Amino acid sequence: MKRAVFLLLGAAIAAGCGRVAASERLSDPKSTIWTESVPGIEVPLLRQQMALPHGGTNRYATIRSAYADGRIFVRISWEDTSPNTSSLERSFADGVAVMFAPNTNPMPSPFMGDADNPVIIWHWRADWQNPETQSAAFEDSYPSYTDGYPDHEKPAFESLGRRPSNGSAVMEYMARGFGTLTAQPSGEVEARGYYDHEARTWHVLFRRALQLQDDTMLVFDDRKDIPVTVAIWDGGKGERGSRKSVTLMWQRIRPARFR
Amino acid sequence: MAKILNWQIGREMDYPYEEAHSEKQIAFVFDTNKCIACQTCSVACKTVWTSGRGQEYMWWNNVESRPYGSYPMAWDIRLMNQLDGQNWKDGIYQGKTIFEAAPEGERAIGWTPESEDWASPNRGEDECSAPINDGDYIRIPHQPWMFYLARICNHCTYPSCLASCPRKSIYKRREDGIVLIDQDRCHGYQECVKNCPFKKPMYRPTTGMSEKCVGCFPRVEKGLVSRCVENCIGKIRLQGYISPSPEKANPDNPIDYLVHIAKVALPLYPQFGLGANVYYIPPIHVPPSFSTQMFGPGVEEAIKTYRNAKDIQDLIGLLMLFGASDRIFERFRTTKTEAIGLSERREEIVRVPISEPVAIRPFHDAKRGVYRQSIT
After folding, report:
1. What is the mean pLDDT, run by run of 10 residues, along chain B of 376 residues?
2. Cα(A27)–Cα(A33) distance, integer angstroms
3. CB contact, 8 Å: B179 with chain A?
4. Residue A91: which H helix or E strand, with range?
5. Are the C-beta atoms of residues B328 and B239 closer than 8 Å to each other?
6. Dist CA B357 CA B211 (whole Å)
7. Is the pLDDT of residue A156 over 50?
8. CB B60 within 8 A of CB B202
9. Do the Cβ atoms of A148 and A201 come closer than 8 Å?
10. Residue-wise burial string across B152-188, b where 16 or more C-beta atoms lie within 10 A, e elsewhere
C-alpha cells in the first residue's frame, strides 16, 4: 500500500515536473524541445505585390506551435544570411509577424483583415529586442519638451506608441485592411528571437495565455487548430511595412499538446 | 490614380489622391540674389525644432552652395538621373513627373540616403574655383559662378511624402496647407524619406519615426512668420499665402504678385510635379542654362524683370518689404515713396520707404574742423 502510494505520488510529481519543464523549454526559442517534440509545417511566403509599395522575397518559413501550461507557443523559423538587429543606421531590422483571426466564421480576408472582420497581429522586430535600440523613455527622446498648454495635466502624447515599451520586443496590433494597423496592446504577449549563426536561421518564439482577463477579442482553445498567416521582413534588403514576404493564404497550424 | 491640373507644369498629371486645396496655401519667396549663406536661418530652425536626441544630423532648413553643394549629397542629381527627358515646350512640361515615372510597385521614383549622405551639409561652399590662366581678368558675369540655395520643406500642393506613406500618416492642414507627419501614426517605414525629391522628411532613430519642417505652424496660427523667415539677416525671405492657380491670382497678394503677375519668383524643380510652394527669384549672374533646369522655363524673363525692378513701382516696393515685419502680411500696396504691408482686411502691418533719404555732406566740416574723404 505504501509502495503504491509512493508510486502514485512519484508519478504525480513526475507529471507535474514534466508540465512545468515543457513550458519553460518551449519559452526558449533555441530549445531543442522544438525540433524534438513539436512537429512543424513549412509554409511558402511570397513577395507582397497587392498594396503599394511592393517588396519582399519569395521564401519559406517553418511554423511550430504548442499548447502548454495554459498558454499558446508559436515559433517561426526562417533563413536569413545575416541578422539585422539595429535600426540606427539606414538599414531596417529583421522581423516577423503572426496574424490570427478572432472570428473564424466567416474568416477575415488574409490580407490584413477587412472592414467587417478584423485580425490580430503579433509583430516581433530584432531592434526591439536589442538593448541598444530599444524604445527610449519619453524624456530621453524629447529632452527639451515643454508642454506649451498650461492647463494640460500631462504631455500632449505620453508614449511612443509605435514601439513596445518596458523592454518588450513585441507589438500587438489590430487591423481591418491595408494601412489600418493600430496598436492594441494587452501587454500579455511575449516574444523572444534567437539567431542561429551556424544555420543562419532566425527562430522567434511568441507566447501568450490562452485566455486573457481584460481582453477577450482573441481567445485560444487548446483543443483546436488555428489558422494563421505569417509575414517576414529581411531588414538588410530594406524590407519594412508593406515591403514584406507573406503567406498569402491562411495556414492551419496544429499546436502540439503538452499536458 | 486621379488627374490633377498642375499649373507649374502647364498640364494635367497623375496623382494618387483627388484634386483638393486647403483654404489657404502657405508659400514663400526667397531671393537668391540676396542670400549670403550666413546660416542664421538654419541655426534658428535647429534651435527651435531639431535640438533633441536623434535630430543631430537634421537640418530642416539648410543653405547649400550651388553648383557643387547639396544636402543630402546630390539629392537632385540622383533623382534627375532617374528621370529622362525633362524638356519644356511653350511652358508645358513634356516629360514625366516623379509619379508618372514610378516603376511598378512604387508610388514615385526616389532613393534613400545613407548616413554619410547627411554628413556634409556645407559641402561645396569652398569648392567653387577655377585655374587663373595668364592673361585672365575678372569680368562680370564672372567665371566661375556660384549661388546659395536656401531650402525648407516646400509644403507642396501635391506632396510625394504624403502620397508615398502607406499608412496615410502624412497630411496637409486644411487651414494653411502645411504638410505634417503625424507622430501618432508614423511607423518609421521611411517611404516619405525615400520619395521626397527634396529630402526634407528625416528619420529620427531614437523615436523610430520620421520628422520634417512643420512650417512653424504655431507661429503661423498667430499670424507670425516662421523662425527661419524672421531671423534671416539678408531679408531674402517673404512669407504669405498663394492662390491655387494663376487665374485666381490677386495682384494685392504679395506672393501672387511675385509668382503669377511679375513672374520673378519661380518654383523649384517644377518638372518633378509636386507643386512646391517655395518660389525663388533666380540668381541673375548664373548662366540660364543651369537655372532653367532648376527653376523652369521662366528664368530669363524673371531675370529681365528683376533687373528692371526699379522702374516697376509695385515690384520694387514689394522687394523692400522682405524681412520688414515678423508678421505675415497677406496684402500690400505701394506709393511712389513707400511700400505698405497689410493684413487680409487691409489694416496696416508695416510701412517701409522705397528709397532711403540721401544726405550729401560737404567736403569740409567747419564745425568740427575736419575734411571728409570718400573712401569707397
Report:
1. 95 95 97 97 95 90 94 96 92 96 96 93 78 69 82 98 96 98 92 98 88 97 98 98 97 98 98 98 94 97 97 98 98 97 97 91 92 83
2. 10
3. no
4. none
5. yes
6. 47
7. no
8. yes
9. no
10. bbbbbbbbbbbbbbbbebbebbeebbbbbbebebbbb
Q: Identify the pLDDT of residue A160.
A: 52
d(CA A202, CA A207): 16
> How would you class B359 by CB atoms within 10 Å of its CB: exposed for 0-12, middle for 13-18, buried for 19 or more?
exposed
Terminal-residue alpha carbon distance, chain B: 61
What pLDDT, on the 0 to 100 scale, is given for residue B206? 79
Query: Which positions 269-298 of B are in contact with A (Cβ < 8 Å)?
Result: none
Q: Strand runs (DSSP E) across A4-129, as ranges?
A: 40-47, 59-68, 71-79, 95-100, 119-125
Query: Mapping DSSP to helix (H, G, I), strand (E, B) and coil, where does residue A122 land?
Result: strand
Q: Distance between CA B143 and CA B128 in Å, rounded?
A: 10
**A161-170 mean pLDDT:** 79
Beta carbons of A54 and B105 less than 8 Å apart: yes
Tens of pLDDT, residue by residue over B174-201, are 999 999 999 889 999 999 999 999 999 9
The residues, any chain, with a CB within 8 Å of residue B129's CB and separated by 6 or more, are B144
B105 — contact with chain A (CB < 8 Å)? yes
A134-138, A187-191, B273-277: least confidently modelled range: A134-138
Q: Which of residues 206-235 of B touch A (CB under 8 A)?
A: 206-209, 218
What's the pTM value of the predicted model, to 2 decimals? 0.90
Q: How do residues B47-61 score in pLDDT, each as one tens digit?
A: 999 988 889 999 999
A90:B114 CB<8 A: yes
> Distance between CA A238 and CA A241 in Å, rounded?
10
A46-85 exposure pattern, b = at least 16 Cβ within 10 A, e = fewer: eebeeebbbbbbebebbbbbbbbbebbbbbbbbebeebbb
- pLDDT, position A14: 47
Q: Which of A52, A88, A140 has the CB atom closest to B166's CB atom?
A: A52
CA distances from B120 to B198, B299, B340 (A): 16, 29, 41
Q: What is the ipTM of this complex?
A: 0.87
| B212 DSSP 8-state letter | -
Among A50, A84, A88, A90, pick the best mutation site for testing chain B contact (most B Cβ within 10 A).
A90
Q: How many CB atoms lie within 10 A of CB B261?
A: 15
Question: Which amino acid appears at position A235 of this protein?
Answer: G
Looking at the DSSP bridge assignments, the partners of residue B66 are B147
Whether residues A142 and B52 touch (CB distance < 8 A) is answered with yes
